[in-house]
Amino acid sequence: MHDLGEEELASLKIALSSSILTTGEGVAEFERNFAKLLCCDYALGVTSCTGALHMALLALEVGPGDEVITTPMTFIATATAIMCVGAKPVLVDVEPNTGNIDPNNIEKAISSKTKAIMPVHLYGQMCDMIALRKIADKFNLKLIEDSAHCVEGERDGVRPGQLSDAACFSFYATKNLTCGEGGAVITNSDELYKKMKLLRLHGMTKTAYDREKNGYEHWDMVELGWKYNMDNIQAAILIPQLKRLHRKLELRHALASYYENNIKDIQGVNLFDVLPNTVHARHLFPIKVTKCNRDYFLKKMQEKGINCVVNYRPIHLLKYFKLNLGYKVGDFPVAENIGEQVISLPFYPGMGEEKSREVINTIRSIVNNI
Ligand SMILES: *Cc1c(COP(=O)(O)O)cnc(C)c1O
């Protein structure tokens, strides 16, 4: 559940009274603020995280014949972005305690075709970027973070974008920071930034914003690009939220603590670990059900009016990836095990005590009646 309201309406009103609705000063302001928040040199506002991942791969020249190592425990877009540039996602199994890609499984999946690693900071807890950076250096691989779950996170003093070539974010409706649909990519590379800026808008050397500022000048097309530019309306919805992010994260942590304290003693309902030295961005609150069949548990929760979802059933068992990548049941047992047990509880900053108590009581009553 989002918390957009008066501040966003006021910001939108200003955006709508400006002559430029597409990419302009609003987007530039968002990009400056977002880069600052992440302590990164450059940010580019785009229309989705999927587009950001696609663009980062294109800009890093990952293409047909190449392989990219990633995780089966993610949303499909991580892998489809890789396939959209003509490369092949090579999946490796995850850590049982976090669900994140297990760095120990990566080296044996590296071949002469491997070009990049694409980790996903699952549920908002960062992967071991220090370990991943070492592997990337050793094998001369690019490193692109799918940080759709993790704007606010940190691990061992490292934040998204700091040890990779690029980190990609989603502002999709359910994400911690949202404008309905949107995304961003951050990087510390001047060269990569310039390339992605071109790819974001048809490979054109001038934009509507330039035209507004300087009057019409002839432009050229120098790259085969895409149409991934964020507009000022999206930026206007995002900007006011940046200063609420910290406070909202505190509320997320308080809610997570409440859930954890009440769930840890329930037999047959297990939690993921939160690692030491980590700021968890707490995008989702997943539990693992072992007391009974997860789908039975999910159905019971739904019957009692508690809306839960599953993040995720591992992608290698979805029809398209099975057919096109040749994966089968048993290939990634840790991810498959999580995929059979995991369920995300209702989880958003404004949820309130009554609702969270109801969630806990419902879990207890289902488990006690098995
Ligand atoms: C939401 C999500 C995406 C896709 O984000 P969009 O902005 O909808 O393209 C990619 N990866 C993960 C892990 C996600 O959760």
Explain how this protein is built:
- This protein is an alpha/beta fold.
- It has 13 helices and 12 strands.
- It has helices at residues 6-16, 25-37, 49-59, 77-84, 129-139, 190-200, 208-214, 232-242, 245-263, 294-303, 319-325, 333-341, 353-368, and strands spanning 42-46, 67-70, 88-91, 114-118, 142-146, 154-155, 166-170, 183-187, 269-271, 278-279, 285-289, 342-345.
- The strands form 3 sheets. The chain has a 7-stranded mixed sheet, sandwiched between helices. A 3-stranded antiparallel sheet has the order 9-11-12. The chain has a two-stranded antiparallel sheet with strand order 6-10.
- Strand 4 (114-118), helix 5 and strand 5 form a beta-alpha-beta unit.
- It is globular.
- The mean pLDDT is 97.
- The structure holds pyridoxal-5'-phosphate.
- Residues 48-50, 74-75, 77-78, 120, 146, 148-149, 170, 172, 183 line the site of pyridoxal-5'-phosphate.
